Each structure stands twice: as structure tokens, then as C-alpha cells.
């Protein structure tokens, strides 16, 4: 595994699921992990269990993102790694999707990534080093799923944001990349119900849902010093889910 010795990593949405696994993995790699989340109770519990730090934040608010980043910088001087991972995925059919449904999805998944990236940039630029890893998705950039038009837009939007941001950061030693998970068994995905989980597992060539640590290991690589020459890129971690052209291809 790639070492992150003495580095400081801030993880949004780190109280549960993928973010929590990222926190665990970067700690194992030698970093100090700062879990940030809107859910204070879960965030504190996860931090205590993993030996991480915790800052409450709401990625919908620029002020909240700036405040959390400042608190971490005051304690540690610098932030080496941002894992911009907080996200939601409630379904809404296109015909009845409200403006609020749309705004909430874009506000957390896309604007949140922008606010957090902007908050960590000055410190990273000053030091000439930084690793930013976004948790995007296969849904939107590659695939679609009924009920997730707004989700897909937010996740594809993250990649558009990333590519131009990567160009603006490259000469300062800062990389920005994205992982694109398939279906990961997390607290969030469990809310989709048993039928969804069964159907999804059947459509994945490996016949298993992804586990949060599968995403965390990919994030850890992109967050490592060794990934210095990779920027503006995506890494799909989906057990081959996007490969089959038809159900027959799976047999
Ligand atoms: P999860 O629901 O298990 O955890 C998400 C965390 O984000 C929660 O702890 C939640 O409190 C936090 N959060 C929500 N709104 C927030 C806000 N406004 N500010 C700060 N924190 C907030 O979800 P997960 O499955 O671990 O998903 C994590 C990321 O991975 C999301 O961006 C999601 O879109 C992406 N993703 C998940 C899957 C999957 O199958 N689980 C697949 C592809 C992409």
C-alpha cells in the first residue's frame, strides 16, 4: 500500500460508508484523518472508533467549508489531502422532480465539491503540494438509472469541474482526480431496498456489490505522493459493472 506518513487528510461525508472507509484506510497508511460530516453524532462516533479527528460541516455552505478547513489548518498548519466525498442519492422521477430536489442534489454533490476544493486551495498552493480526490460515480458519467437524472447530472458535473480545476492547479503541485464507484454496500445504498441490492449484485460481473474499502484503496493511491503525474483523471471501481453489453454477456 502507498504510504501517507505524516500527512493530513480531510474527508467530507466521513461519518459513514465510503468516507468512513477512506478515513480508516488513510490512517492505516500513516496519515492523520479528519472526518467531516453534517451528522455530528455519527461523525464523532466514527472518529473515536478509528482514531480520527472530527469537524462538523455542511458542504452546502461555503462558510461552513471554510470554517472546517481553517480549524484543521489551525491545528495542523497544512492539509495534504482532500477527499471530497459527501453526497446524497435520493431518487426522484423526472416528471415530478421538484426544484428543491434538484437544488439539494446539486448543492451537496456538486457545489459542495467546489466549496471544499476552493477552501483547501490557498494552503496547498502556498506549499506547492496537494492531492484532491472526488468521489464521483459511474451513474451520470457512464450509465443512467431511472430516478437519478439529478444525481447523474451532479456526478458528471463533478468530472467537468475536475478537468478544468486540474489545469488551474497543475503547476502548483496539486492534482485533482476522481474515483467512480459502481454499487457500494453502504448505509446510503441500503436505503434503496433489498430488491435494488439483489438486482444490482446480479448485474455485476463479479456478482458482488463493491465494499467501501475497495473505493478507499483507489482513493489512497490517487492521494499518494506517487500519483504525482496523474491529474484530471478518473478511476472506475465497479467490479466490471459497466462492461456487459447485454445480460447474456454475463453468463
Ligand atoms: P452514505 O449515505 O453512506 O454516507 C454519506 C455521508 O455524507 C453521510 O455520513 C452523510 O451524513 C454525509 N453528508 C450528507 N450530506 C452532507 C452535507 N450536506 N454536508 C456534509 N456531509 C454530508 O453514502 P455513501 O454510499 O458512502 O456515498 C459516499 C459518496 O460516494 C457519495 O458522494 C455518493 O454519491 C458516492 N457514491 C456512492 C455509491 C454507492 O453505491 N454507495 C456509488 C457511487 C458513488
Helix-strand blueprint:
Layout: E1 8-12, H1 17-28, E2 32-37, H2 40-50, E3 53-56, H3 62-76, E4 81-84, H4 99-127, E5 130-135, H5 149-169, E6 174-181, H6 187-190, H7 194-203, H8 212-222, E7 234-237
Parallel strand pairs: 1-2, 1-4, 2-3, 4-5, 5-6, 6-7
Helix pairs in contact: 1-8, 3-4, 4-5
Bound molecules: nicotinamide-adenine-dinucleotide.
Number of helices: 8
Radius of gyration: 17 Å
Average predicted local confidence, pLDDT? 97
| Main pleated-sheet profile | 7 strands, parallel
- C-alpha geometry: globular
How many E strands?
Answer: 7
Query: Strand percentage, roughly?
Result: 5-15%
Would you identify the regions where 5 or more consecutive residues have pLDDT less than 50? none
Helix fraction?
40-55%
Q: What compounds sit in this structure? A: nicotinamide-adenine-dinucleotide
Order of helices and strands: EHEHEHEHEHEHHHE
Question: What strand line-up does the widest sheet have?
Answer: 3-2-1-4-5-6-7
> Structural class per helix/strand content?
alpha/beta
Distance between the termini: 34 Å
